């Protein structure tokens, strides 16, 4: 029940709300629409301003596929996104569980260490990390892209918030029922947190999917993630707009589809998480 | 006649007062088993954190006290705080700090004002439309920064771009000192506003609707309810958003700057992170870059501490 | 032949030939792999051919790490990161602007020591077509050859013949002096409503190669000959900047980024552009049937000889292992061979450094005949002077500071003299032996 | 004068009908208690009156004005929320003064009025505190103060005592009753606590699944429950309900069942009729074993301090008996229970509605 | 056999001492109720017994084993949580079977055992539901089932009924009592509801700010409260407490105060002594006006259905009187109240502890 259920909401104001929201939403989606519109224009029409792309053409896509191994890139990016998100979830889950289920010395300090990662400029740690990866022999591997991102401060913070709202008595009940903390985590906590984990996982996957800075450093020998594929159509000599937009469209497509399918859950889980 | 006295009923036995304190010795093994679990669960995260964030940060700190061109074999020269002096002596630093402040201020409308507006308005519309608007506003978040940059580069093109053609202007948005920063801010704002809307919506959902209902019954008009009740109660969320904006704005703009303006024109979009990037990766001045990294880290700690303090003072928690 | 031992600061001893069955794998880093399309395809083709010729050598190609729109700007930082990590690529393609830094700071290996001066010179002489004389020494430092010049382009004035016609100009007589350029631009601007001219030498992104050419054409330099003093705030430079600034103020040169200008010209919205000959392919593709491309040599200033400079890159060796060093040399030889140049010129359109090829019927003669834009380009080689790289570890800061001042004066309304002067002052401190 | 009239008020949430066609006429100065089990629609009804929810159907009148489409701001009502809904970011003084601030009173007047209200509620020392620094009882009083400060047409109170512990509750209950007496303002009071309902109401509206199950004074509702629902809802332990058959014997009616034989005190001859027989625990007395009455076996004796509750098993039915301590029976005893005919309630076995005896000539209730 | 012994158990949270040096010896088969106001440390004590919290001081024994440092998994105890703590993602059957699964029972045996427990609790039809599809009472039973399934050494129950409405509460209370009777297992039961405490306990442990305030059978605690705290905590309305002075007059003792004169039924001569006088509302009776007793004015009469509570004002003190309806007084009446000497309680005015009369020769209590 919200205040806006109350009696006497004038119709005009509601229309005003729709108007403002409509304009804002349009401003938000228009670039996305334009991206796709441009990607399906005929090569000669790339600069056309008509809102509806006509005639439709798949030439740009064909071009993109011809010049880059787009499918391979999508696959690689998918692998990175999935494993990175799963890894981050696992690490964050364990950490958040520790923070919520026990009180222990150094707790606050450790927690601040996580928050602190937000303050460390990425540019400052990039080179040492690269050198370390090289020593570990992980350059040019997808693992090299994934491993350094595995500890996500955001994940830990969000899950901790979530878990803090989780009834502690359930943990105690499981203990009384003879469970170790490890099996409690998997049998009690994880199933109950499933929606939140899914929402967070998707957010993390989107972030990992869109990441290009670090992959650009680690994966030199191929356009191994799709965001880097985009770069190969940009250049001093001007951008190759058609295939660029086509690749961009393909790069966003899986995330968009995922989002459209799970939109409700993501937003709801997020909203319910009471992130404050 | 009977004589007697009133006596107090004794309280139940309390042995500590009698000096008998029973104690039980715990073996080290049970003790270890009791204490260890949280640390074990934290181990993976902390190891990753140390290896990939704090250890490099420490290296950076060491590097900031040296002069070295990063080539193995060439000597690393210890120079004390010379790098810091040099850094503080460059006019670029002051300018980039100022530009960072501008970026942060410019981002606030996108991370606070618009999201609050959108979240309040979406609550007002009913049914499916609510979800649809939220979904639309969130959509840019899904577009990779590079792809977003590409589209905007197209839209902002001075001669062929949609923005100029629609507005009937002739501005080279990304290559004019006055507008480049603005463009970067708008594009970044476009990108993150959806996330902020989500955060605000979550915050609003967390506010007990009874407060607004009570205020209405108390005779407050809609705008009074918003100003006197909803916004103050939303203040922790808003504080979180402001903190996030202050700490992360410069990071968020980074990929866009790198793709769209490379810090230009004439450095007008070079904020501190881009400056750090230029020192480290274009000018190969490892010592200076490290000093800048350390300085910015320290600066942000101070800013974050101040902001949290301030936020705690100003925001009203609902509990 | 010398010993096989490796020295302390990179190997400078002569490296032995590879045994026929000695398996070697090397890494080749080139910014050409950063761009999808013709570039990558051609290079992959060349490498395949090389591996076929040298079955015992495996080449792994990679692009520079980083993500700039122009991968060529990432080359040095990429190499540096890899050097820091202790695993540099074996052969690297680096621009001439980085020459000083590459050799003096990054310690590229002297080819003369590695394979012997004779071998290096023999490669320059080639089987039939030697290198153009002005190109041979571009990768030398203090008399030793460190890099083999590989690709190469010169500034050219490209014109849109269609717009010329529409503006009532003669498309077959492109301007030869800057004054004529200005007049033509005015005409185009006034009669067609399109933009007149863009000189792609005046921004930080454009780097300083053709700004150097403009200054030299006006009788100045950006740095003294002994490379100890910056001179870009002197009158010739200021005049050049002022001239360009005036064109911007008149509205005949639009404020554009490099990318925007190139696209705009390709689209047919710009009358003329002073641009690297390397981009010609893009213009031809953009022109298609819509308009016709014309090309002329870089214009001169009234009464002076135009002095073009070259942009481009050379191949350097960073391999640490003798076998790899030898394999690297083999790759360099192959990539600069007549055969490779024939492929590169036909597929990408780069000017061959072995200029004789364009007269060779078995080489590029027919290609040259089909390519009317080649003649002015070749003609310019006669007056070509090398792109001078800035000295010291802060060379990029110096270069960027200078170009930023130019950009600021030309496009963003700063006063040319003050802007250049203060930039020169700041930059001078960064010179080796400067205050720093 | 504030008479509140509900005419066929209905409110649906999707498939759920939270309030179902309620007609109520609340007179000026009345203390109406809305009573009913959890989820029966009490809060919803109150919110409908407050205007916080629009009704799906029906109309609402305040005196002679149609309030149905008037927004809450313009209804002259004050509400105390179940959760108090004190504005957590405002001090006690500003919480109490809030309605006046919304009405744009001058500051000085607000301050004076707040001080006055605070004094009557004993809150003067707390005016600068924030709600979270108050105890439950203090919060409750602040919420009341916020309502009192503006002298509204009517008060709506939603389970205002449910969060208090037993001791505080008794005290506050008395305070509210006194308040009503002194102000004479109409009050609509929601509760699920029957002691509150019984002690405070001038009338009780008993709700069941959104419908009005019974409306009457506390003693009417307690003494003459209109249905099995009403009978078992009020009273603790609840009224005993047994399946029985009304049968004529010797010209008078009696309720018969397994081990049950209780005279109804009505002289009449009727065909047998199955009924549900109700009798309150406090109305049962122990009779000499073997006589007429309910034959039962004691299963447990519960000591409530001042009284005892004896749990018995009669046939398959459980029966509770309540009386002053000690009742003198213990678990396992076989007992016979009787009750006076006027304390017996009969309900239709199908509909559960109360049955009254209508003599041909003079009406008399069972 | 499961005898639980607490020896000097203390638990501190930072500066707060939640449980303070508690000694308890809970015999096998006992039903011990932990009673006390909110925040007095009941839950903490239960959690200490369960092993969910380590004690700061003291030792804990189960029969002859020192449990102090044994993790909860290895104590043979079952706990029913205040909030039930049902696993929301598991069906009723799997919730009940959860402890057996942890003990690696074979599936078939688990199923059989769960079915058996479900049958005794009447949950058979609900086995496939998820907790959120259950009513409060059903959830309660599932929580019980989860405890019952494993036949533990003792049950620990933390306010298991606090979330139920009055009706459901009465029923479940009886079920738990019956369960205890049939199983004979030791139970430690936390509540803040005195009716539960009185009806179910074999002994009550009354806690006040972490300390044991009184330990005894329900009637001991009700009839002979050891302190003012115990006296006012049990009983509804609470025992009336008045300031008075014990004075000898005519060779016998009486309590005197403002408008108070009540004989204590003790013949003795003593110096005057200030005391706090306690008398339960149900022990007060109306006497003819003007006689000896408590002179008071009726301020309100509350109808509880079967009984009435009369609120009076005597001097500055409020006094409640409870009796069967109707008591025949109304607000404004001046009344005189008396009570029999054996129903008067005296407490020390400083320490608040109960005073007993110790005759020189034969001990006799007041
Ligand atoms: N906003 C809503 N959406 C859907 N159903 C609702 C909503 N509000 C109330 N209900 C339903 O309406 C019914 C009545 O709810 P209401 O809150 O009025 O009950 P109540 O009598 O106040 O109960 P309680 O004593 O537990 O407070 C319930 O079944 C509830 O689930
Ligand atoms: N984890 C904790 N940290 C600090 N203080 C605590 C903690 N747990 C309990 N306390 C404090 O210990 C005291 C006793 O708490 P406990 O939960 O045992 O009370 P309780 O008797 O169960 O109360 P209630 O009837 O309200 O459940 C309280 O003052 C409480 O604030
Ligand atoms: Mg309610
Ligand atoms: Mg508790």
Automatic annotation (TrEMBL), chain A:
The protein's UniProt keywords, in alphabetical order, are: Cell membrane, Membrane, Transmembrane, Transmembrane helix, Transport
GO BP annotations of the record are: transmembrane transport
Q: Which GO terms describe its cellular component?
A: plasma membrane
Q: How does it sit in the membrane?
A: Multi-pass membrane protein
SUPFAM superfamilies linked = MetI-like
Which segments constitute the ABC transmembrane type-1 domain? 74-262
Extract the Gene3D superfamilies matched here: MetI-like
Q: Where is this protein localized, as stated in its record?
A: Cell membrane
Q: Does the keyword Membrane apply?
A: yes
Q: Into which family does the record put it?
A: Belongs to the binding-protein-dependent transport system permease family.
What name is this protein filed under?
Carbohydrate ABC transporter membrane protein 2 (CUT1 family)
Top-level taxonomy:
Bacteria, Bacillati, Actinomycetota, Actinomycetes, Pseudonocardiales
TrEMBL record, chain B:
Where is each ABC transmembrane type-1 domain found? 97-307
How does the entry describe its membrane topology? Multi-pass membrane protein
GO annotations of cellular component type? plasma membrane
Q: Any stretches that span the bilayer, and where are they?
A: 39-57, 97-121, 133-155, 182-207, 228-250, 286-307
Q: Where in the cell is it found?
A: Cell membrane
Q: What is its main location?
A: membrane
CDD domains named among the record's database cross-references: TM_PBP2 (cd06261)
InterPro entries named in the record: ABC_transporter_permease (IPR051393), MetI-like (IPR000515), MetI-like_sf (IPR035906)
Keywords carried by this UniProt record: Cell membrane, Membrane, Transmembrane, Transmembrane helix, Transport
Q: Which GO terms describe its biological process?
A: transmembrane transport
Q: Which PANTHER family match?
A: ABC TRANSPORTER PERMEASE PROTEIN
Q: Hey, which family's this protein in?
A: Belongs to the binding-protein-dependent transport system permease family.
**Record protein name field:** Carbohydrate ABC transporter membrane protein 1 (CUT1 family)
Automatic annotation (TrEMBL), chains D, E:
The record ties this protein, via PANTHER family, to:
MALTODEXTRIN IMPORT ATP-BINDING PROTEIN MSMX (PTHR43875), TREHALOSE IMPORT ATP-BINDING PROTEIN SUGC (PTHR43875:SF15)
**TM region(s), chain numbering:** none
Task: Tell me which Gene Ontology terms the entry assigns under biological process.
Answer: carbohydrate transport
Q: Which InterPro entries match?
A: AAA+_ATPase, ABC_transporter-like_ATP-bd, ABC_transporter-like_CS, ABC_transpr_MalK-like, ABC_transpr_MalK/UgpC-like, Mo/tungstate-bd_C_term_dom, NA-bd_OB-fold, P-loop_NTPase
Keyword Endoplasmic reticulum listed? The answer is: no
Is Cell membrane a UniProt keyword of this protein? yes
Q: Alphabetically list the UniProt keywords.
A: ATP-binding, Cell membrane, Membrane, Nucleotide-binding, Translocase, Transport
Q: Which domain of life is it from?
A: Bacteria
- SMART domains linked to this entry: AAA
GO cellular component, as recorded: ATP-binding cassette (ABC) transporter complex, substrate-binding subunit-containing
Q: Name one Pfam family in it.
A: ABC_tran
Q: What Gene Ontology molecular-function terms does this entry list?
A: ABC-type transporter activity; ATP binding; ATP hydrolysis activity
Species: Prauserella shujinwangii
What's this protein's name?
Carbohydrate ABC transporter ATP-binding protein (CUT1 family)
Residue span(s) of domain ABC transporter = 4-234
